[in-house]
Specification:
It is a single chain. This protein is an alpha/beta fold. The strands form three sheets. A five-stranded mixed β-sheet has the order 2-1-3-4-13, sandwiched between helices. Helix 1 runs parallel beside helix 13. The longest helix is centred in the last third of the chain and has 18 residues. The chain is globular. The chain starts with a helix and ends with a helix. The model has no long low-confidence stretch (mean pLDDT 96). Bound molecules: 1,3-dihydroxyacetonephosphate (13P) and iron/sulfur cluster. The site of 1,3-dihydroxyacetonephosphate has 11 residues, from loops.
């Protein structure tokens, strides 16, 4: 079977079997073409509640599938490739956060959505890269303990100088690879280009950017801008998707190392096998875990809406 044939099989099968395919924007073009919806983590969490289908297949990483399950527990949620985890989501555990909380009892604990369901049970409010500033600005408490990404936390703290932030040393190993040397080289090679970066990059990189935003915000900015050239400081797929949708503009990845092997581990064949029941993994969570972990996601949707 070639790619188009496989895509047609997938489209026919998902229609017959009442499946909604959700894809994160870091997925490959072949996958986004067969998805019902592609977006950033905030948009995916909103879609998780809106989809009418009884089954959801997530092409992304595990915490994204867990978020869908928590928001729609009555649905059957499948992670297309079970090995797709997010290393940042697994950097901290409940015990560590509980110990830190006991040192800062008057702080509101804000979790980046890139965290496990278990970790979310000890947090107060969840945020995504696109919603963090808006949501934290609405939290009454001025003291914020932000986990796990200290780069996103640093970015948000600069945007909200009236609040006091306590950050821990966590973050995305992929975005952390970008160096100031990469910025210097990219800007020297493309002096007319605007630099758009994800807030998971380190503060020194974010400071050099013309625009900082989530994966979808970066795509929207580039599509709507009058500029013709862009240096893209996030996973390489965003530059590739933009090049397809805006052929009259030029997109340059900030670093060739910006490849998330977890996001890239899902293939069309995985999607096909997951639909047929010969692959993928159903997300199973106890009612207690769902009830406890989704409080902070509900809070995110309440404050972010
Ligand atoms: P977004 O919230 O921008 O989709 O980012 C998710 C992510 O994992 C970025 O590395
Ligand atoms: Fe996790 Fe980083 Fe991959 Fe995003 S790019 S899924 S934060 S490891």
């Amino acid at each position: 079977m070639n790619i188009a044939e496989l895509q047609n099989e997938i489209l026919a099968f998902k229609k017959q079997n009442d499946v909604c395919i959700l894809a994160h924007s870091y997925q490959t073009k072949e996958i986004t073409e067969i998805a019902d919806f592609t977006g950033d983590s905030y948009q995916l969490s909103v879609m998780a509640q809106k989809t009418k289908q009884k089954n959801v297949l997530m092409c992304g990483v595990r915490f994204m599938a867990e978020t869908v399950k928590m928001l729609s527990p009555q649905k059957r949620v499948i992670l297309a490739n079970p090995i797709a985890g997010c290393p940042m989501a697994e950097q901290m555990d409940k015990e560590l956060i509980e110990a830190v909380k006991s040192q800062y009892p008057d702080y509101t604990v804000v979790a980046y959505i890139n965290t496990t369901a278990e970790l979310k049970t000890v947090c107060d409010v969840c945020v995504t890269s696109s919603s963090a500033v808006r949501i934290i600005s609405k939290i009454q408490n001025d003291k914020i303990l932000f986990i796990p990404d200290c780069n996103l936390g640093d970015y948000v703290s600069r945007m909200l100088p009236d609040k006091t932030f306590k950050l821990l040393q966590g973050g995305c190993p992929i975005h952390a690879r970008v160096s100031l040397e990469d910025v210097k080289k990219a800007k020297a090679a493309h002096p007319e280009a605007l630099m758009l970066v994800h807030p998971e990059c380190s503060p020194g990189i974010v400071k050099e950017a013309d625009f900082v935003g989530s994966t979808s915000a970066i795509m929207d900015y580039a599509k709507n801008s009058d500029a013709k050239e862009f240096i893209i400081g996030t996973e390489i797929s965003i530059a590739q998707h933009l090049q397809f949708s805006c052929p009259d503009k030029r997109f340059y990845p900030l670093s060739k190392d910006l490849i998330c092997s977890n996001m890239k581990s899902t293939t069309l064949v995985d999607v096909y096998n997951a639909l047929k029941g010969t692959g993928g993994e159903e997300i199973v969570m106890s009612d207690e875990l769902i009830a406890s972990a989704r409080r902070c996601i509900d809070k995110m949707i309440e404050l972010g809406g």
